[in-house]
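Sequence and structure are kept together here, with a separate record for every protein. A complete record is shown below as an example:
=====
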Amino acid sequence: MPRPRLRRALRLIEAAPAPAALAIGISVFALGVFIVTRPLTSLWLLAIVVGVAAILAGVLDLADSERSRTVWYRIVCVLWIVGGLAVLLFVGRSLEILPAVLAVLLIIGGLGSLAGVLRGRVSERVLSGASGVAQIVFGVLALAWPDLTLLIAAVLFGVRTIVYGGSLVWRAGRRLAGRTPTLGDSGRGPRGRRLADAGRYALAVVLVVLAGTAWSVNGWLAEGAPVIDAFYNAPADAPDGPGELIRSDAYAGSAPADGTVRRILYSTTDAVGVRAVASALVIIPTDLPPGPRPVVSWNWGTTGVARGCAPSLMDSTATRWAIPAVSEALRRGWVVVASDYTGRGAAGRFPYLIGEGEARSSLDAIRAAGELEDVRLSRDVVVWGHSQGGHAALWTDPVAAEYAPELRILGTAALAPVTDPLAMARELAGRDAGAELSILVSWVLVPYADVYPDVNVEDYVVTSGRSIVREMTQRCLSEPGLFVSAITSLGVSADRPLYPANLTAGALGRRLEQNRAIGPWRGPVLIGWSDQDEVIPSDLPEHFVRDACAAGVPVRWVEFATGDHRSLIVPSSGFLRTLVRWTDDRFSGSDAPASDCARYAVDAEE
């Protein structure tokens, strides 16, 4: 009968004096506790443990005269040794590739375990088969969820080490007490062997259930992830000029009752001035009035920074639950154009809270929508935006003056906007670290690092957490997989800060300051916010209003004492009546846009 690896290791330690075996057991137990309680700190240690364990596993199995007779098993042993050496020799880089290494080792271990179905008692064969299948399943899943794999691997290795250390302590204690423990079925009677068989069957069932459950959960998470279809692939002959329509297609999601929705792919310029391709939704009134139609440029709030997070990929983003007052806009004959920005949908750099890139994407979407055959657009544009989209909206008018001078920006409406990314970062840095904050920071840091060469993720993220931060940026708010990032964030933040450096200092701080909305605006501005907003601190829009009024911009603002971050854009929001009426005044050419700056001056004097 082949001997399990743990049993052989126990025999080696039992050859040592009992006090030495006890000391080894206590040390191993303490190491396991450290790994479990400090998962992020221990990732370096985990890499070393994985490497050493893989090498020992291969060496011990090669030393097994029975099992190493087969060529297949010798190959598996050599792969374990090679994998362990690779981790140890390249440990500095292996923290980035450690999930892949763990996955490969799990798959190799699973294949080796499957060889055990040919030898031993029936219970041992069943357990070997269940163990092999489970390891292969978890190896495949490790490749799919590398960020969570690091955390789970650390905990599992820690638990396994605790159990191993505990067994050493127990056996050493029995030896010191004069009782010699036995190993294997040979020291058991018929009843002991039956109990061992039952234990193996029970463990096999547990492994199969765990593997099946994990596979089912993975399927559920995968089904919830957006699928990027071929529509978003840039053609080889994409136009050189910005704002040119490449292709259009029907939108597969829900449409408002009074409109039809099309998605478009168009050329644009990204945040660093490079030609790019972006996508957008164009929502057209069903009963289209004659003549060129005014445009509402809608800028989305945060949905995520990965390609799959494009709103045009989602089912309900053209409805009144995602675009405020969209039905009212359509009834008035306005066309709504909503860009996904570069890097979402189509490949490229996503300009999260990067004003130049956001504004160029939105302006070129309007230009491209004007090339659709079934609609004529006027030059008149009013810009709306919420949250991140509020930041994009506030940058659109200033950028349009030079980038798209043919468009006439008549006004900008910003709902709960990010007016000052640096000030917001300072506010967030003072809050308790949690899953939501860790994910949000990654969504800012990684796009900034992708756009600006002087911003480096390595300067702000703990070494062992860099792969985790990168993986966070692959999740969208709309997909169930976001909870994987949340779990990972909670796990690592329980150990030590994922972002130990000052996020508002250095190159990142300078770039955040560079993207503050400071105008100038040719048209008036409408801004609304809630004092109870859990995302945007209320002093940010207040400071914006003060500075804009001081610069002579006609500003209307509505401040709500209640409501959360999304309360201004839900269909029941009282702010929407103000938004529609104010926008209608812009398109109708009211002589003097209403301004609350005089009220601000009175409040300041008081």
Notes: Residues 190-224 form the longest helix (35 residues). The beta strands are 245-250, 259-269, 275-285, 293-299, 335-339, 377-386, 408-415, 525-530, 555-560.
